[in-house]
Amino acid sequence: MAVPKRKMSRSNTRARRSQWKAEVPTLVKTVENGKVTYSLPHRAKVVEDSAGTPLFLEYKGRKVADV
């Protein structure tokens, strides 16, 4: 494991940490059967039955995994 040779000053540490910023995720709006849903692009979505029970994961219209 890499170990720093010298101690990093408090001001340098805080200056480095201040550059980390949270980003708002980009959501894609889709309308299915009159219901509006928002999802993350390029991610598998959970397909549920009418009772709300998760059935499987779907990506680009194909079943990719069981839940």
TrEMBL record:
**A GO CC term?**
large ribosomal subunit
From the UniProt entry, list the residue stretches annotated as the region Disordered. 1-20
Which Pfam families does this UniProt record tie to the protein? Ribosomal_L32p
Question: SUPFAM superfamilies, alphabetically?
Answer: Zn-binding ribosomal proteins (SSF57829)
HAMAP family cross-referenced by the UniProt entry:
Ribosomal_bL32 (MF_00340)
Q: From the record, give the transmembrane residue ranges.
A: none
Q: Is Nucleotide-binding set as a keyword in this record?
A: no
Q: Which domain of life is it from?
A: Bacteria
**GO molecular function per UniProt:** structural constituent of ribosome
Q: What is this protein called?
A: Large ribosomal subunit protein bL32
Return one Gene Ontology term, BP aspect: translation
For bias kind Basic residues, which ranges apply? Answer: 1-19
Return the NCBIfam families for the record: rpmF_bact
Listed A to Z, the keywords are: Ribonucleoprotein, Ribosomal protein
User: Into which family does the record put it?
Assistant: Belongs to the bacterial ribosomal protein bL32 family.
Q: Does the keyword Cell inner membrane apply?
A: no
InterPro entries given for it? Answer: Ribosomal_bL32, Ribosomal_zn-bd
